[in-house]
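Write out the bound-state structure for adenosine-2'-5'-diphosphate.
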Amino acid sequence: MKLFELNNKKQIPAVGFGVFMIPNNGPTYDAVLAALKAGYRHIDTAAGYMNESDVGKAIKDSGIDRSDIFITSKLWLQDYGYENAKKGIENSLKQLGVDYIDLYLLHQPYGDYLGAWKALEEAVKEGKIKSIGISNITLNLWDKFKDGMSIMPVVNQVEFNPFVQQKELRKVMNKNNIRLEAWYPLGHGNKDLLENKAILSLADKYNKNAGQIILRWIYQEGVISLPKSTNPERMKGNIDIFDFELTDEEMQSIQILDTGKPTHDPEDLSNEKRLMSVKIHD
Ligand code: A2P
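---
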């Protein structure tokens, strides 16, 4: 697995296995165990996915050294604010059954964000978290929060794929040395994307499938991807992307597919209202 370097000099596997919407108590356990067997060494979960405990169990049962696996989790909105965030971090550590988390993100950009960020910064100093980052941050939200941060986020995890390239946001994140991470890297199975002509013609040329072309393109863009699959063959295929290279022209043939329109707008007040009301514990 290829690694990328973060702005704190730590390394992160370029492709991680995402477990969004995979249920706990079995399915996540099976999927993570299969992913580790397939060669993934980076698992992306969240308190809000409510499957951290299955992730932790699968990692333990895999027999792979904890230090060889990169674990990302995220703090849910209900646990924002300084005091609540400290408890939320402890809870993630407990659910995962680990004594440190490699990367911990603020999942959504609402509520007492900077209070929660302060708790994350302290957890870094205490060694409970190695790196901290942000998620679903647009340019406006970045302007709102950035001055209240004393540790720079290492990543911003946002919707990213050939149809959603976040070009303006990337320019600013690049300037700050904050790497993008891609959620929905395969457009969440969007057929228009997976059956796009330009992508299929590259798949034909390199004897790969459309998903592999997209993930290779994301890798060459310098973006970390978090593809999700519950199918062991596709799981394996999605990290079998390091034996070919797209030319500059081929990269451009995908760059022009950008629609500039994410499906999720974090600045939409109805999203804020909906997400703020999601409770993951009493
Ligand atoms: P499945 O679980 O049956 O493999 P995203 O990561 O963008 O959210 O996309 C996940 C969706 O894409 C899932 O529905 C997954 O289905 C499907 N998927 C995962 N890998 C591939 C691939 N290589 N080609 C086509 N579809 C894929």
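---
The first helix runs from residue 27 to 38.
The chain has a mean pLDDT of 97.
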